[in-house]
Amino acid sequence: MKNRRILILVIIILLAVVAIWLAYDRSNSTFSKNEGNFAVEDTARITRILLADKRNNIVVLERKEDGKWVVNEEYPASKPILDMFLQTLKNIRVKEPVPVNQQKHIISLLAANAVKVEIYQYLPRIRLFGKEAWFREKRTRVYYVGDATPDLRGSYMLKEGADIPFIVDLPGLRGFVSPRYSTRLEDWRDHTIFHHRLANINEVTVEIPEMPDQSYKVIRHDNNRLEVISLVTQQTVSGYDTLKVLAFMNSFNNIKFESFLNKVEDLNIDSIRSSQPFFVITLKDNSGETIKVRTFHKKAEREVRDENGKLFPWDVDRLYVEINDGKDIVLAQFFTFDKILRPLGYFYIKPSEAYKLQ
Fold it and tell me: pTM of the prediction?
C-alpha cells in the first residue's frame, strides 16, 4: 500500500514536471504551426494583398486576369517591386519567438505601430484524387509587421489571434523585411512613362515653347514610313537623317522616371506647373490612346559650366516631368530623357540646315 502511494506521488510529480516543461518550452522555443505560419508557399495563387497602417494609409495590390498587378484599383504596379515582394512572402521564415520577458512590450509596440497584412488566394473548395474544383477567393493570412529588431537582422511579426510574437527574417537578406511592407502608394507604382514599340506608335508630337520653330510631329504610316512635319509650317520636312528619326521613335520603348515628387514638402508644385514647359511630348498609339507629358527645367543645385565657361542656369542632370494627365509631378534623369528631347534641327543631315524649315 505504501509503495503504491509512493508510485502515485512519483507519477504526479513527473506529470507536473512535464506540464511545466511543456508550458515553459512553448513560451520560449516551440509554438504551434499556425502561430508561426507567415510564409505563403504558392504565391501564384495570390489574388490580393492589403497593407494598412495606423495612420490610415492603405495599399491594395490586386492581380488582374492578364497577370498584371494594379495598386488601389487605379495605377499599374511596379513589376520588379511586386516580384520581390512575392518572393519575400514566400521565403520569410521564423527565426525564433520573442523572449517571454519581452513579449508584452513587443505586442504593445505592434498594436501601436504595425502594418496589417491581409493575403487573399484563389483556392479550390474541393480537392479529390488530385483534382481541384469550385474555386473561390479566400483570405489565407492575416498578420502584423512591426519594426526591426535591435540588431537589424529581423522583424517582429504577430499572426492575428496569436499570443506569441516572432522574429522573422529572410534567408540571404542582410537586414530586415519591414520596409518591403510599405503602405506608401508611391513605393508600389510603376515608374514607366512610355513603353511603346515602334510598331505600336501612330504619331509623336514634340512642342518646344522656347523654340517654336523647332517643334514637329513624326507620323508612322502603315508601311512603316516615317514622315516629319514642322508644326510651324504644317509642311512635310525633307532632308532629314532617317536613321536619327528611326532611333528617336524607337526610344519610346522604355522611358522611366526616377521618383515621385507629389508629397515633397519643400517643393512648390504649383509654381512648376505654371512655369513655361521645356518640352511637351504627346504620343498617340495605334489603339487611339494618347499619353502627354510636360517637362520643366529644374533649378541647378551646383555650379556647372560649359566649354566656354558659361554657367548653366538649370540642372544638367535632372528635370521635372508632369505625367498622368497632370496628376503627378516626377523627377527624371536627362540620361534617360535626352533621347526623346530632340529639336527638329537635330534630325537634319547638315547642321547648317537645322533652322531652314520654310
Answer: 0.81
